[in-house]
Amino acid sequence: MNAVHEALAIRARPRPASAASAVLTLAWRAMLKIKHVPFQLFDVTVTPIMFTLLFTFIFGGALAGSPRQYVQYLVPGVLVQTVLFITVYTGVGLNSDIRKGLYDRFRSLPMWQPAPLLGALAGDVFRYSVAAAVILVVGFILGFRPQGGAAGVLAAVALVLVFSFALSWLWIVVGMLVRTPESVMTTSFVFLMPLTFASDIFVGLGTMPSWLQGVVRHNPVTHLANASRDLMHGRPAGADVSWTLLASLVIVVAVAPIAMRLYRKER
């Protein structure tokens, strides 16, 4: 009888995980998804290579005189486009967790409640970094030579990651509102296609009709692409960097509270 009482005696509970450890654990979980769903690597590796090769050799001669000249303009832009497209997987992954019932399980655990969202975002930053590295390696092979050196390239990649992190909050909201991962993909690309293609990622602003130039000039992706291009080539980029950081801040301030509110609500 005493043994039973001892077994049932109340003991000190282990301390709950800290906010940082919870975020890191769930970030690691997000990266492990790539191991178990290798198709996610397709958009991180194969798609950037295809975009870079196709645009360089098909449009390079017509737009810049030669593929080697065009790749100096293209690589920073393709980096921006590819990473922005990958941001949709944040919403897709969250929507999949909701359908599997993990959503309610996470909310019931004694951990810092924003950890599942921030962990997913942190894991996705790793995915963005892999895509950026793939594009840069392909660009170097094709003759891309950034005049800004390693510091300029790293600054450009960091800026792209900051904006992508901010944009991912939007797909979290979409992932909460729609019913299937396929709906997240469809909704996001309806938004991302004009956002990326109606910019100067592939061609300069001066080649566009005057009525379109006004739209493209105020597109935050245009500022991001310009800033990345200027940083990589060692040119002044203060204005475009400032606009990109401001746009990132506005997105986070406007969308993150909505995402957290939806996360706490019953679905």
Provide the descriptors you would attach to this structure in a database record.
single chain; 267 residues; mainly alpha; 12 helices; elongated
Nutshell version of this structure?
The protein has helices at residues 2-8, 19-36, 40-64, 67-86, 88-100, 102-108, 115-142, 149-177, 181-197, 210-217, 220-232, 238-264.
Q: Summarize the helix and strand pattern as letters.
A: HHHHHHHHHHHH
Q: Considering DSSP H and I runs of 4 or more, what fraction of the residues is helical? A: over 70%
Sheet with most strands: none
The low-confidence runs, each spanning 5 or more residues with pLDDT under 50, are none
Tell me the structural class.
mainly alpha
Q: Regarding quaternary structure, how should these chains be classified? A: single chain
> In one word, what is the shape?
elongated
What number is the mean pLDDT? Answer: 84
Alpha carbon gyration radius: 22 Å
Describe the secondary structure blueprint for this structure.
Blueprint: H1 2-8, H2 19-36, H3 40-64, H4 67-86, H5 88-100, H6 102-108, H7 115-142, H8 149-177, H9 181-197, H10 210-217, H11 220-232, H12 238-264
In words, what does this structure look like?
- By secondary structure, the protein is mainly alpha-helical.
- The protein is built from 12 helices and no strands.
- α3 (40-64) runs antiparallel to α4 and α4 (67-86) packs antiparallel against α7.
- The longest helix is centred in the middle third of the chain and has 29 residues, at 149-177.
- 37% of the residues are buried.
